[in-house]
Amino acid sequence: MNHDPVFSLDEALARVDDDRETFQMMIELFLEHGPKDLADAHAALDAGNAPDVARSSHKLKGALLQFCAPAALHVCKELETSAKAGDLTQGGQQYAALEQEVQRLLVALRQVYDKGIAA
Question: Using 50, 70 and 90 to split pLDDT, how confident is the model at 3?
Fold first, then answer.
């Protein structure tokens, strides 16, 4: 299991000029849409649909960039790159790693959200 920091709160806040209200909204959106984007990538992977895996992982990558979540971003980029090349041979492993990192991020963001640190 990865014990590195899940994301950088300071860097993520800096991306929105320390606008905590905006950051709060970003967390809300990711808590709602992140799992759906992950599920879309999984469904496309199960179907062997590389273009849809690439699309879903690209969408998820955009959200991960906002939170400065290096581990999740890294595995998401790997999945997207492989899918764009039409190669899903490592897709299951890449997806499993991505799912683990996104789950870690969701937990961390929920903690920040619940503490009101972004409010």
Answer: low
Angle in degrees, CA 65, 44, 34, rounded to 5: 35
Its pTM stands at 0.91
Residue 43's alpha-carbon distances to 22, 23, 40, 51, 113, in angstroms, are 31, 29, 5, 12, 29
Question: What structural domains and CATH numbers belong to the chain?
Answer: 9-115 (1.20.120)
pLDDT in tens, 81-115: 999 999 999 999 999 999 999 999 999 999 999 98
9-12 long-range contacts, CB within 8 A, separation 24+: 9/112, 9/117, 11/68, 12/66, 12/67, 12/68
Cα–Cα distance between 97 and 101 in angstroms, integer?
A: 6
